[in-house]
Amino acid sequence: MSSESKRPQRRPLRVELLEQRELLAGDTYLVNFQNDEGTTPTGYLRDSGNLFGDRGGGYSYGWSSDHTDQGRERSVLADQRLDTLIHIEARQDWEFALANGAYEVTVAVGDPGNDHGLHTVNVEGVSFFSAVQDGAGPMFATAEVTVADGRLTLDSGAAANMATRIDFIHIVGIPSTPNAVPSAPNVTEPAFDGQEVNPADVHMEAVGYFDPDSDAHKSTDWEIWTTGGGAEPVWQTLGIEGVERLHTHLGDGIFINSHAGQIELNANTQYELRVRYRDDAGSVSSYASRLFQTGAASSTFALQLEDIPATPAPVWTSTLGTPIELPVGDSFLSPGDAIIAFDFDAGTDSESPNGEQAVDVLDGDPGTKYLNFGKLLTGFIVTPTSASAVKSLVLTTANDAAARDPASYVLYGTNDAISATPHGSGREQNWTEISSGALSLPDARQTIGAAVSFANDTVYSSYKLIFPTVKNEGAANSMQVADAQFFAQSGGAGPGVLSAGDAILPVQDIASTFTSDSAPGEEVDKAIDGDAGTKYINHGRERSGFIITPEVGATTISGFRMTTANDAPERDPSAWALYGTNEAIQSVDGGFGDGENWTLIDSGEINLPLERFTQGGDVAVDNTLGAFTSYRMVITEVRDVNAANSMQFSEVEFFGGETAGLPPKLSIEAGSTGSPFLQIEGSDLPGNLVTDFPEMANHATVRIVITAGDRPLSLTRSDLTIGDGAGGERTLFLPAVDLAAGERLDLWVSSAGGTYYGTEGQTTPDFSLLARSAELDIPFVSSQPGFVVEQVGEGYRLPVNIAFVPNPGPNPDDPLYFVTELYGSIQVVTRDGTKHEFATGLLDYNPQGPISGSGEQGLTGIAVQRDELDPEVYHLYVGMLWDNGSPAGGASHYPKVERIDSVAGGLSMDSRTVLLNMQPETQGQSHQISNVSIGPDGKLYVHVGDGFDASTAQDLNQFRGKILRMETDGSPATDNPFYNAGDGISPTDYVYAYGFRNPFGGAWRASDGKHYEVENGPSVDRFAQVNEGVNYGWDGSNASMQTFAIYNWAPSTAPVNITFVQPETFNGSQFPASFQDMAFIGESGPTYAAGPQANGKRVTQFELDANGDLVDGPNTLVEYVGVGRSSVVALAAGHDGLYFSELYEDTGEGGATGPGARIYRIRYVNQLAGDYDIDGDVDQDDYTVWRSTYGSNLLLAADGNGDGVVNAADYTVWRDNIGAALPAPSPAESPIAVATDSLAADQSEPAPDDSLLTNAVFAAFSPEATPQSSASSALDSLAANGGSDATGRDAQVQAIEGLARGRRPMRPAWTLELSPASETEQDATAADRDAAFAGLRRPTQSPLSPRR
């Protein structure tokens, strides 16, 4: 492989630390020779040149002399096994301690960084290489050897020192006597030839081990090969033991040959899986194989809409937020037009270093100072907070260099507005001299000088203080002063006039020089010469520009366009101001550009591309003033003023005049028919012309068509935000556009808003060529109207389950939910949204294997309850794998259930107790103990996977493959279906149901009291109702996964969690009535796969009937639309929505196990404002929801104004909509309808002040206060703070008292049935409410519009 080969992905060392053991036939040992700093390939032992000795884990190996300085890593080959090596020193050997017997040995030699090796290798006297010259690549040799002295010995014979470079060695025990071979495996995953799998997540499974000699299954060799001509192995894991003998993943092995360095297979490619068994005598079976096909690495889903409503209006901006306006009119500049350069800034010698600016004379700190290198005639202009007649001033000397002290002064005053610029002449205003004279500042440093007094009775708004001379002009390089203060009395008496924060500018009072300057060949005429290879540069930098008089005469400008120059992007214009005049131009080239009277037309920002010689987007000019004969373009800012020494661009074009022909246009339309949703067209008037079209009969895929019209069109990258017709908004991410006249650009839109290039004739989406990816903060979107996805937590590491506290406390620091993290930590989140580390280090091993692979194990299921006697103590019931010291750090892990008790308050662990230890039953990656729940009977229900051994699921005397039922003290429930205490307690006594493969998720449905599970199969997944004593049939086949299934996913989507939205669980999680009693399932999809996936990475919903049979589903509620690694794992119904986790940090920067995963909430945003309990009307119950969540930034059901916190403004939303209701749906309408405009309150009433309203409301409804006292005290407070007056006080008190009485104990004081019989009562209620809060309203506030 060439030196340009892809570098391998670095993986952590994976060495299983085992007890000292006898190394037996059938064992496989893979050793990589390398430098100590190099990464060790997965599955290999590391040898970095140490002397023979104990390497840990039961292995002893090493060299006869120190070779630690002979290890190399060439960083040439992606295959780490072949990129690393050790030079063998002359007459030395390497040994590996082994049981005596026969072995098959493979040795690799070669040096990818050099070609002068001469390799000799002997193993146990058998020659593998004899003075073999380096070839074009590594060389391999395999032979059988016999070990008779307990050590396998490798040497390089008589080879010269360092001539042999050894890469790796494979040692595999083989039978020393005749031994029957095992039967070939039965490959069950992939399930059939041609099955399509994700290239990042290939599940490989084989069953049916049989050995004629009854030898045990020792290990398995797994290989993936390419097919066709030149077939080669591209991935392998050799001699793997444990559960990976039966089921393995790509992460358990290494990519080799043409795929070396990859972390996944190639997409859309056929491969062959080859697998063989090895028994513990060392015999291997023949290979079994399975052809399979990889699909796309990710799937892109099309955006589908029925309507883009006129409201909210579309918002189209550049990526910097500048509005996009489609330009109309023709270009009216030409190379012969009269054009001159200018710069507003006047040149002086004034300059101050950082930290020694004019503002420092106002800080009152003699330790700081103002220094000006202009020296003579320097000073400052200051505008005090209040105008005054200054009669004296005081100066403080600076820290050093007395020669720089001012020696004289001149003080001026003005009442003109200050337009001077920093370090200018300061002569732009009309100044009146107040006083002048000599100064005698003390030579002592940081010392206040004597006051200088003068006569002045004129009040000025601004003052200019100039220091014409310094103490020693020859010795000083600058002027400096520490502080300055002005006084309105003589002698420095009274308070000072100046204060920190006053506007102040450094100046030098000299005749200014022009600062406009261009290098030869880069003058202003190059801006309109039509040649992008030339440029206009002005060293005046910002506030420079050009004045142009077009030959065509007076023209109405409507837009302009600039092209970047050849270099220095920091000099690009970034903001502009455009002026017009009809006077003859008197300004001179290179002057100030102020010889005429100019009228400001428009100003704004410009977002030029970073690419050089590149045309920027068209910039619209909002010109309501008409035509001008000349224009002055001022560049007010450049891209990076600190880095730029000038302003530059290569070309500028102006557009305008009479509009003729076709304007540019953007159309959003149905991809299949071309029928328009929305059209945006260029217009002569400011802004764009927007046309909204009627709603379509059905959802349609979305295509965007941009046409240039009769002149070229150039647009920068932009974002177009539209309503989606379902109460939400979508942002469409548009690429830069550069079209010739008459051209069009077709773009297909993904569900995330990303755009892809299409062609005019296409009618179905084509996502093969990305135009611009979606830039999303949250990579999940809702597929159903009214729902939003919000981030509520971050910084998790492999969060696998969420458990809400069933009856959480009311305080901000009370626990709300707990999150288990796979590698042994639990986090608790309080009601205020704060995450606390509850417990860490809960595992007694470090699951550092790969994902996907052996790293997928640890801490999983969790259930929570509060202590009955002390509710401040929380009990957590968790499931995990544990090695239990058998041996410590060993490869075997055992499932167990623990109870973890909290300290008071629930924010950290106090103690832990083992409830059930299932040792000696072992489990490993994925197929482990998982869901833990507390049933309606108060029992613990625990899901236990089959440990990759299907036979366990049918064996009632094993815990694996079961759903267990037990008391909360860990004992089996005595009414379990197979309980029999007569024969002692055994796994059978715990079994509630059996025949499961991998039942990841479980949840309780309140309407039938049943438990439901979701389960991963080999290629078919299952959703089932769990019934007592039932065998669910798992026997190793996909067919058995259909037993008692409500629904099967085929192909698999990896459903991992389930929850029900139901009134009995947190009042239905604030979901609409039509969503109650539905099951929601998290489908995680392919492990650690990037981008959207057709099979998973979503939350789906199912509707069941009363018997638990399927009525409808799955229907997608939320799906992943990003480009990263996020997936859906944890899923739980909370107080105000469904909460779910992404298992992996989305970007993948920290790898699959890195921290940074987030928790999200799926929340329903009600279309009826104020209906906080989502029951279709606005009534007192909604007030109860508001009150119970007041102040929360997490529980947002009552966040009526959508500002992210429940506060008094949300009360106002409820108040202003009291009595409103959704109309009864017609048969053709959705049950979720838009609110009508019928509001009980007058919408013109201003909203109350938050703090005053909050005090009044909580005083009125405080459980601790009487109605009379609370109402009276609240109104006293309001009156004191200007929120109420004495007028009508008695009526206000009575009204609040009445409300308080009616609310305590939270029972209705009125009803709001929208029936004729209740209208009078409803009117009375509104009157009472308005009377109660009449004094709380502030007439200066604008009304709060109801949300729809």
From TrEMBL:
Residues 1339-1348 have a biased composition (Polar residues). Residues 812-1038 form the Glucose/Sorbosone dehydrogenase domain. InterPro entries: 6-blade_b-propeller_TolB-like, EF_Hand_1_Ca_BS, Galactose-bd-like_sf, Glc/Sorbosone_DH, Quinoprot_gluc/sorb_DH_b-prop. Residues 1269-1280 have a biased composition (Low complexity). It is an enzyme of class 1 (oxidoreductase). Its EC number is 1.1.5.-. GO terms for molecular function: oxidoreductase activity. Residues 1266-1348 are annotated as: Disordered. Keywords: Oxidoreductase. PANTHER family: HEDGEHOG-INTERACTING PROTEIN (PTHR19328), HIPL1 PROTEIN (PTHR19328:SF13). This is Soluble aldose sugar dehydrogenase YliI. It comes from Posidoniimonas polymericola.
